[in-house]
Each structure stands twice: as structure tokens, then as C-alpha cells.
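Table S2 (text version). Query chain:
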Amino acid sequence: MGVSDGSSLVQMCIVKVAQNIDLLERKVLNLPVSLLKDLLPHLNIYYLDRIETAAATKGISTSVIWAKIWRDLDQTWRWRSKSAPLTQDWKQRCLERLFHMLMFTQVRRAGSYLSNLSDSSILSMTVKHVRVLSLNTSSKNICRLASGDLRPILSALETGVTSLRLLDANALFKHGRKYVLFILHRLLDHGSVREVVLRRNPDSSFLRWLMSRHRGPQGSSETSHADGHCSVEHDGELEEPAAKRLALDVEEHPEVLCSEFSSFSSPADHCPKGQIQSLDFEVSKCEILTTVSHILPTWVCLHTLHLHSDWLIQEEEMSVLVQSLRRLFLNPGCSLTDLSVSHVCGHTHVISVLRACPTLLSLSLEICPPADRNTHGQQTHFSQSKELCLEKLSVKSTGPMSVKCFLPALTCAHKLTSLHLTGVHMSSRFFHTLAESNPLLKVLNLEDVNLADYHREILPFLEYSVLKDLSLKDCRLLDKCAVKKDFLLPFVEALKGVSSLQSLTLAQNRLASGVIEIANLFSGCRPSKITTLDLSSNFILPAELLEFAQLLETCRPVQRLTLDLRFNPLDRDPEVKGQALRKLIPYCNILTDDWDSRSTMADHISVM
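Corresponding C-alpha cell output:
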């Protein structure tokens, strides 16, 4: 952000003021708004932070400046929308990233935003903005956090960090296991961390220590004993306490290290025990059958559990997991509301999980069904005396699986507001079930679901829906249409009747010339009120886009529209493409594949 030879005197003065802001800080706020706007990009992050509140009183936002700093820090990132700097907390993102770069890797000091700042002053400022602490193989300097010089930084992390990402715990331990465990103990047990993300399975002793932070308030299924431990009742017998059974050896207890550091005065036996309320875990077969299944029934403080695996979770492992979940949900103190499991083998697990977890609010399953086509369409019975509490359901299938496998569960999910299905085979009862049993449905996302034979079911469903977000991506909507408008015209009219609809995605449906009918969404006496329209990957040619734009120019959307046109062959005729985009600019924020350097376009056209 230096000064070029052709800079004006005013620009030179602004840079000089920025360089001496420590002496002129109070006087700067007396500058006219136009000069203050020009000055802000030249300040380092310390003074930009100090001045932004006062600048806001003059109607000046620093979001765009922080967004530019972010782009300098992450040069692989590309602008998606011109409005993006106003809709995200770019300051927090910048300062959190700067902390990680300075603490664990390195920072390029090319920009003026770091001028005249020492490493220690940058750390002291940025650490206050760290909410997610990510530790991976490049975090070589993590042990410095246990040193006396950086204990104030560790204390600040204890206060501010709520989410801890351990991307390779075993690699971290190579830098000094004793100190890494101490740091994690301070963050988890003395700090505010309640969410943990684990990748690359750590060694079993660390995993057991980590998962011992599972205790919540005593529930009815736990029996207290004089020694302060609890036993869990299982099939009429008392099991050995999970926390005691999975305890580490004395030398593995990082709590003991607290007494070795003078500034942390509490003795080990007085250290608190943290509570992990959200766990995102890359799990192995052995860990499901041992650690996870033993801990889950007593993990009453757990709100969110996401289990990932690179291998297929077979029926045996899934049965053990479901049984553990059933025991957890029998506990009145159970807090689990959000469950996600990936790479599950079988057709019936949506039903079996919901039977075991009737008060679950959100369920996401990635299912890899067996290749036996004789079973993928079988309907599963679901007898439930009480209606489910389920509000969000996501099912992704990577093989032959029919929606019939879990359709009965939808009939008991009257509170369902969001449904996301990927790769499942459709049933003629599906849309009828949604209309009859899920009247609160606000979000319907169907991806890689063949709807070519279900036009008659779609239209009446839309007539009574209260959807806010409808996504039909790669649904082969027009594959069996001899004349596209025979379906698109009534489809568009039905969409216009959904007054609550705000977002519509029709990506990857080979609309091509059918895009012209989509423009009728905004015509007539009851135009659609949608604000987001995704027409990406639809083989739309420049001439077809131009006709769409001319109709939009005549109809004019009720509200400004975010229009996604990416991955369409618009470059086949750049001149016609330009004409179309210029007609759309007054009414749309446009997402395109390319960067457009023309200033008249850049103010309005969004880019990836």
C-alpha cells in the first residue's frame, strides 16, 4: 500500500498521517469523512481496530478494509459477491487467521496493516478474537503456549476459544506430548471449549482421556457410590464406571502438570473437568465397538455428535452404536439433539436410529446400501406411539435405496421443517406424505433424485406448501418432456402460488431454452417474491439468456435478485452475453464464472 511516483499531495499526506498515527490519533477523527475513508486503508490493524468505533459514528464501515486484508492473507480465496464484505465478520476472520499464522507458521509482512507492530503486540491483539483454535501438523510452536512468556496468551485462549480442532493429534504429540496435553487440559477443563473436532484417529490413551469429559448432571440411570464414581445399569447388572475403566496412567494425566507451572496455582486434585457438548469425530471400527459405545450412554451433556469414517460401518458396528444411543435417550438428562453418521451400510438405519432417539431434532445419514436390488425398495414398518421431535433430516445414498425405506418415519415427523435427500429412488407417495404429514416443511432439497415421472405429484404439493427454500438439483425434471413448456408453465405458476418462497435452485436440469419460461416467475398479478435463483449448469446459451433478460427487464422482480449463472456456455457469444448481463444488472446480483474488469459490470456482477 505504498505511494507511487504519481501520487497526489493529498495521498502522500494521508500515508504520512498513517505512519504517525500514534501521535495524531485523536486529531484524525476531526478529518472530513472523505479523507477519513481514504486514511483507513493505510492504518495497521491496531489503529484500524481503535478507530473503527469512532469511524462508525460518522457512517464509515471498515468491513471492506478487513475483507481486503483477508484476501491478502488467503490469496487462494476469491470474491464470490460484491456484498460479501458487508455480510460477514471479516475482522474476526482476519485476526483469528493472523493469530494462527504468527503463532504456528509464519506471516508475510507485505502490507501496511502489520507495519510498526511487533510479534508480541500482534499476538496480544489477535488472541482476543480467536473462537476456533485449529491445531495440525504445521503447529510446530504449540509448546510455546506452555512457556512462562506466553501464559497470558494461553489464558486468553482459555477465555475465548469455544471450538478446538485437532487435525492430527499424534503429529502434535511429537512436538512434546507433556506440554501438548497440558495445553489441551487448560483449554478443555479450565477454558470455554465445548466443541471438539478430531481428525486422523489419535492414539487410544489420548482418546480415552478426551472422552472422559462426558459427564453431565446426574441422571436417573446412574447410581452414586461412596467413592464418588457412578455405575451404569445395563440389562439389570451394574457395569464398571466408564470414566474409571478408561482412566489413564498417572504419567498421562495433564492435570498433574498444573502444579508444575507457578502461574497456575490450583493443585491437580482441584482441577475442574470440562464438558464436551459437541464432538465431530473421525472414528474407526474399533472405537465404535469400544470407546464410543461405552461412553455414549452416560454422555448426557452431549448436544451434537458427528461420526465420520473412511470405511464402511457394517451392520454389527451400527447395531452397537444404535443400542448405545437407545440407552442414552432412556436417560431423562439426555441432551443430544443433532446426530450425523457417514458411510453406513444398510437400508433401515434411518428408522432404527429414530426409534432409538425419538427426541432427536436433527439427523443426517450417509448410507451405502448393499447392491442387492431385491431389498432396496422394501418398505420398513415404523410403529411409534409418540410423534417424533425431528425437525431436520438429511439422507444421502450412494447406491440403490428407495425413499420407501424411511417414508413411514416422515408420517410421524409432524415438526419437520427441513428435508435434504440425495441419490434416493423416488416413490409416488413421497409428495403426498409431505403434504399430509409435514405441514411445517420450510426447506426441501432434492439432489440427484429422478423426478421425471413425478410431475403430477409435484404440482399439487406446491399448491399447499409453505416452503421458503426449494432446491431441485440434478433431478432430470425435463428428461421425459417432448415439449419443455408443457411442464414448465404449470410448474412456474405453482411456484408463484407459494408466497413464502424465497430461494429456488434448478441447477443441472438441462433447462437450456426453458430458461425463458422461468422468467415468467416475475410476471402477472402475483409475481414470485424469490430473492435467490440458481440456474447454474443448465446449458443456457447467450441468446437464451438475452431473451430471459429482456423478459426480466419487462417484468422486473419485486426485490433485487441474486442470480447464479455459473457453468453455462455463455462465452460462446461474448457480445450477446454482455448485452444480456447489462440488461440484468439493474435488477440482479449475478454470479458468473469469469472476472469482468469493466467497472460498469464489476459494481454489480458477482464472481467466484
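Notes on Table S2: The radius of gyration is 29 Å. The first helix runs from residue 9 to 19.
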